[in-house]
C-alpha cells in the first residue's frame, strides 16, 4: 500500500437521502460502517455492531426478540407474550436494502454477512422513511452482484467463551458474471454460538404467589408494595394447604442458551441497457435457540450466570424474503420502483413460572378445595406445581411497494418524490399452559387433563381444533397494519455551492386492525356468540359491548385504530468549502396508533392509543480536514415527544398488560464521531464516537399511577456512551502485512422502563476488545479476544414479574478467523 492510500479517511457512499451520496456531503446525522470496517470488526449480528454505534441501544431477551432504540426515545420493552399483536409499533425503522423489515415485538435479526455498509440515521426520518422512523432509521445494505468479474470468499472461525461452550462459524460468498449484462451473487452461512448461562436446580410452589404478598413487601427493585398492590389473601393461614413443588431437576443444564444461525442469500442483477437495470434478491434464514439470555442476580452464586427455569425454553425463528428493484432513467429523471414480500414464522416455548410472583389469581387455577376461592381466611386443599409455560406461534407477512423519482442534482432546484404502500399481517397464537389446573379432569400425579376443551364457534382462529391439554388461556389474534403514503423533498440552492434550503413533507394514512379471540377454558358458559366472537374489537371479550365507561363517560370503542395527516421537515445547509458542511434541521416523526384489548378496565384504559409524535430541532457539522486525514462530525439536538406510548402492567387496574399515551418527554443531546489517519504514521487509524443524552419525563398523561414521576429519565438512555478503536497496520517482509486493533466501549447507567414498579437500574459498563492478524496475498488470519476484562454488561433488565432478570453480554471470548479470497 502507498502512504497516500493509508493516510486517507475512506469515503462511504450512502443512500440516506434516497440518492447515492457521500456521507460527508449530506446534512443528516449518519453513522456509517463500511464493508472494510464491518470486516475488521467481525460484525455478524446486531449485538456486534451495537457496540460501534453510540446513541443506539436495544431492549429484548435474546435472538430475534429485540427492540432497537435511538437517542434514548424509549419507554418499555414488553415481554414476548404481550408484544406481538398487542404491542407498540417500533419507533426505529429497520431496512434491508430498500425493504422495510420493521416488525412489532420482533425486529428481524438479520445475519450481517456480505454487507456493503450499515447506515444509522439518527433523529426523525419520517418524510422519507415513514411512521416507524420516528427516532431514527437503521439500514443494512447488502453487496450487489458485480459485472466486473468472478470473485469468491470463504471464511471460517472458532471461538471459546470463558465458562461457556465453543462456537464456530463458516461464511461463503461467490460472485459470478454470466454475461456482460447479467451477474449472480450468492451468500451462505452457518454460525453455531455456544451457550454461557446455566439452568440450575431449584424448587418453587404456589405459596409464593402474589395472592399472599403482604403490604409493605419490598420488591427486588426497591419499590415498596402498597396496600392496593398486596395480595388479597395476605396473612391467611396456609398451614392447611398442601403446596406441591415444581422441581426442575430434569432440566438442569450448563450453558443451555446456544443459538444457531443458518441461511443463504441469492441475488441477480441484469442491466437491460445503459439506462435500466433490474435487481432481484431472495434470502432465507433460520434461527434455532434454546434457553434464555438473562440470568437471576439473586441466586446463591453471584459469580455464576445462572437461572432457574421449569420448562424448556425453545425458539425456532425463520423467514424468507424476496425483493425486486427496477431503476433507470426517464429522460432527466432517475426512477426507481422497489417491492418486497417477507414471510416469517416464529415458534417458541417460554417458561412462564415467573408469573407466579405477581399472579394473584394463580391459586384459583391450580388449587382445589377452599384455597381455590378468593377470600378464604383459613384455606385448605392442594395446590399443584406452578410449572407454567406458553407455546407461542407467530406468522408474519409483509408486502411493501415504493415508487420514487429524483430530478437531476446539478440543477439549482432538485427534488425526490414518491409513493409508498405496505401491508403487514401478524397471526399470533399464545397458549398459556397450566399443567396442574383445577379445571383438569384429574389431579392424579402425572395425569393432567383439561376440561372443557373446545374452540369458540365461528371465531377467527389460526387453529380451529381443540386446545392442547393443559391450555387454560388462549390468545388467537390477527393484527393487520396497512399504510399508504406520498412523500417529497425539494432542495433549492439559494447560493450555489454555498447555501441550500430543503423542505420535505409526507402524507400518510394508516389503519391498524385486530381480529380474533382471547379465551379461557372456563367462564365461557352462558356467553352469547357475539361475546365469544368479537371480530375487529377484542374489548368485547371483557365488556360484552361496543362501549365502555372511561373517566365516568360512556365511550364508543373503535373497530380500528386509524390516523392520517402530514409531517414536515425543513433544513438549511451552509458549505463554505468543499470540506466543511454546517446545517440546521427541523424534522417530525410519528408512530402508528393501536387498540387496547382490556379497554375500559378500571375506568381508565383507553380503547385506542393515539399516535405519539416527535419534533426534532438539530444543528450539525461535518468537517474533513488536513487533506482528508481528519474527519470530525457531530450534532446537537432537542427532541420534544408528545403522547409517548408505553406498555403498562398495573395490577391496581387490570391483571393484563395494556398500552397508553403515558407522558410528554424531552431529549437533549450531543453526538459526534472522529476518524484520524495521520500521514505522519503510516498505517495508523484512530476512530471514536460518542453520545451524550439528557432525557426527562415532562408531564404525566395517563390516569394510572404506574409511571415514573416527572423529572425521571426515559428508558434505555445512558447519559454517556462512547467507543474508541485504534488500528495499526505494518509490512512484514516483502509480501505480508500485520495489524493490531484494540478497542474500548463505554456505556453509562440507564433505566430499563418508565413504569415505576417495573423499573430497574442498569449499571454502567466498559468493554475491551483486541484483535491482531496477518495477511498474505489472498488469505488472512485474525486472532481476537472480546470482552477482555470479562465485564458483565446489563443490556436489558426485565422486571414485569417482580423479579430482576438481566439480559447479559457474552463473557470473555477468544477466537480465530481465517479468510481466503478467490479472484
Automatic annotation (TrEMBL):
Residues 361-788 form the TonB-dependent receptor-like beta-barrel domain. It is found in: Cell outer membrane. Its main location: membrane. PROSITE patterns: TONB_DEPENDENT_REC_3. This is TonB-dependent receptor. It is a multi-pass membrane protein. It comes from Hyphococcus lacteus. Pfam families: Plug, TonB_dep_Rec_b-barrel. Residues 23-137 form the TonB-dependent receptor plug domain. InterPro entries: Beta-barrel_TonB (IPR000531), Beta-barrel_TonB_sf (IPR036942), Plug_dom (IPR012910), TonB-dep_rcpt-like (IPR039426). Coiled coil: none annotated. The keyword Transmembrane applies. It comes from the Bacteria. Keywords: Cell outer membrane, Ion transport, Iron, Iron transport, Membrane, Receptor, TonB box, Transmembrane, Transmembrane beta strand, Transport. Belongs to the TonB-dependent receptor family.
